[in-house]
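Run folding on both entries below.
>entry_1
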Amino acid sequence: MLDISPSTKIDTVLSKLADALASGNIEAAVNLFQADCYWRDLVTFTWNLKTLEGHEQIRDMLSSQLASIKPSNFVQDAKEMASEADGVTDGWFEFETATARGYGHIRLKNGLIWTLLTTMSELKGHEEPKGIRRPMGAEHGHNRDRKTWTEKREQEAAELGYTTQPYVVIIGGGQGGIALGARLRQLGVPTIIIEKNERPGDSWRKRYKSLCLHDPVWYDHLPYIPFPENWPVFTPKDKVGDWLEMYTKVMELNYWGSTTCKSAQYDEATGEWTVVVDRNGEEVVLRPKQLVLATGMSGKPNVPKVPGQDIFKGEQQHSSQHPGPDAYAGKKVVVIGANNSAHDICAALWEAGADVTMVQRSSTHIVKSDSLMEIGLGDLYSERAVAAGMTTRKADLIFASLPYKIMHEFQIPIYNRIREKDADFYAALEKAGFMLDFGDDGSGLFMKYLRRGSGYYIDVGACDLIIDGSIKLKSGTDISHLTENAVVLKDGTELPADLVVYATGYGSMNGWAADLISREVADKVGKCWGVGSATTKDPGPWEGEQRNMWKPTQQEALWFHGGNLHQSRHYSQYLSLQLKARQAGLETPVYGLQTPHHLS
């Protein structure tokens, strides 16, 4: 019997798939997939972010989309070797549609497709001006009327939003708005980014001083400009802020700092938004065709209503407003919550000499930073991965190629290894009274993040302070009420306090839509984030993608963009291409528009 190479197996299936799609033979295409199969499409076939599960869903999508999409030229990527392990063959391929060029990943089991990823790389005729298409910059020759680069930029800044209108307005100038703004700039889409803070990066600079990126540098690059090779593994907040400010300037973004959005209304008849902003005290009316809320995946701060808040004589702050520990040396501080912000704030307060107590109301997933880097991220995002030839783009696509429906199956063994490696650490935490979990199904950090965006801490040192009692802990209870000078818990414990910090998380992003547009529009769109996994804080029905993120919503011309730096980088590509296609007047038949969902 011939030993067929992985590359030949991939070629064979891609050829059959291409023939079936080209001839419109949907049944032949469907039959190339095994019964338990997944096709994740990022824009190319669905003009959506959509995962199709099983033959019936794939058949339905192709029946709807195939005639207009016209896929062709499925060719294995010659630069990437196909491979085989544990009965699974995987490889990379390029392809085209009528309007775009795409890139994909495929996994085979027993000669049939198990998982398929198709992603849009660029729109034909609207390619980014990079590489061989890069602009000349300085104009050689002679022209009495020509303008310098500086003069052109000054003219653009003076006119955009006043005598000319942007096609896109992005509300929110953190990493998400900046990454998307950079993509749109490269695609020639006139865009204004609205940010309430004065400078790019202020959303980092103005947080508590111990804040830093808990993800390592290889995971956090922005589009086009990766961090330099001497960049620290974990970036302090002010360094992140300076990088974002530099990036905004270098990428020539139209960034309106010190500007707040007062209202936004969509006119269905004209297909245009009316966005009223206050720019340094001046009211400006913008009329974009598309509106993007990039106000942060976490949405609006969630501050619980507690009896006695009106009589408490000390300070009360949400974690997002906490200035840092300097003013609280020798003070008694109670921090409500036990996730990332709570741990960071407690540790910084202890270092400053405060008497600090953490109130843990429900269990938290903890993973040590070095274990996460070594076991959880090391194969894709690390110096080791770079040395082995891994690129950021390839790592992002590998991560994207795992459908959410089965991603936990890949994560559970990783966290089992971490649990075993750090068994003594976890035992010491539990002995201190800390309530631990690894997610409802043991799948750990990434699935908790994707499902609910909360409930975890990447340990960079605070846990040792809990273990040795330096940070006091009250777990398994909640606040009953406040007195003039204390927090009283439901178990009767009274904690004297000069400051109460509510590290109690955030609501859905659509809370911003309710404030800026209307409650009617927010309800029409539904909840943002979560995949419908029927786990804690992520109830069904199953959606299979992040609800309402980076894709069309039930409100025409309204988009949501958020997430960590990795997601801001990766998904900004697909959102920018969807926006560019609409600006260019291309047909964008959306398949599988998400229905609204309101439970959280």
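>entry_2
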Amino acid sequence: MSKMLKPKSLLLLMFALVMAFTTACSSGGDNSASEKEEEKPAEEVKLTQDQPGWQVDTSPITFDWYINFAWFPNKWGEDITSQYVTKKTGVNLNLIVPAGNEAEKMNTMIASGTLPDFITLGWYEDAVKKMIEGDLVLPLNELADQYDPYFYKVSDPAKVSWYTKDDGNIYGYPNASSSPKDYEKFGDNITSNQTFLVRKDMYEALGSPEMRTPEGFLKALEDAKKMFPDVNGQPLIPFGLHDFHEKGNSSLEGYLQNFLAIPQDKDGKLNDRTTDPEYVKWLKTLRLANEKGLMSKDIFVDKRPQMEEKMAQGRYFAMLYQRSDMANQQNALFANDPNSVYIAVDGPANSNLDQPTLSGPSISGWTVTLISKNVKDKARAIRFLDYLISEEGQRDTYLGEKGVTWDTIDGKDQFLPEVAQLLNSDRGAFDKKYGASHTFWMLMDTNITPAWAPPAVEPFKQLEDWTRGKTESFSQFDQLDPDASSEEGIINDKVMNEWGKILPKLIFAKTDAEFDQIWNGYLEKRESLGFAKVHEYRQKEYEENVKKLEEFLQ
């Protein structure tokens, strides 16, 4: 999920060097499986769509799998679940994550042509297009045709259509993807990550104040600061957000706009949500909050590690933040004092006090996984990918091994009690010991897995339940931005960088008049950079998306 989704918010392990790839990719031991596959053509095996191709060959093979998220901490083969998957399929994974800047690492690999066997990265990354256009990754449909027609049985036609390029090929398969049809099918089971959070004990001590209007919001922050000036000797932070970066702050963009229920389109035309009067009104509310000393300087400089430390200490009174990204901190607070956790409440709203329109999983999902042209064994690679996206693979990676981590209890496939207990009490320890429940989320299908998930417990249940019925599919608004190297993409990048500069200035403005001056200057600059071209480009993409999705809404 922030792109989410935001989504968790999840990813994999430390990145060795380009040399590690070349060594692994050229090692004689790994090539033996490839040679063996060549000696036994797929035609002779006579695979059908109904036969899981991975069952044909379960001899040992190790694939290098790169995950483009520096924070991903887990290693394959150290936990019960990944050991089970390797024992069953023969496939071992050498998980690699970048040690520093993800974009730099991807660009280095692309430039040198040294891509590992599998690559997982956000669908929104420029590197996806670079790999496809650079002819560095293989079409999944061609691999399926040649080695494993099972792909067509286990893949979702809507997702395949969505990710099929103009050349008729699909190069990457998404995780955490939900089509508009899935929203019809799964209804209120689909939840959002977007929440307005308050510290339970403080909020209740203030009398559970209304915070939907600018006046109520400001009064609650003021009262919290007066009643709780510090938390364990450290100053209270009245209002927390995602971190500020060079292109803005997601809490103050999509999150806030969704809470204000600002429409993304009107009469088939994209709506410029940034200029919506309701949105500007709330930005001015935050300016006033800063003038009143309610916007701590910390929130403008802190990055994720500092924020997590402060969350675990309960130093924020309120936050506009993604709920799943603070699970460990919630657990720590809950263990110390169940009343000190964060709960979701109705937050900033528009003048009509309309219910928020929160962003749920979209058809684009969160990440895509691609298979490199350098892959050491094409047949085993596509067959393993097909296994992972099948219901069997989803069950194996989510629940683990039957009788070891799960069983059928009261007619439901579910974790054994001691496994569920660790999942709910210490997620980090659970990942290391059991490796289940989306520890390895690269191809997780979040439409299938809730059937096996243990019921949500506090302190997480309330947050999740609060989003039910408020979550919407915004798939048609996905993937609208132009390619970074195009004329429109270059303009868009400049506009976003300009926004990143003025957003803090708007909040720091000493008066509304100064705010207006900065705001109007931004709109003029945006126009002079050529933003109209970007808007025109995005409108065309949006119309194409609507057409693509119509087929699956019949």
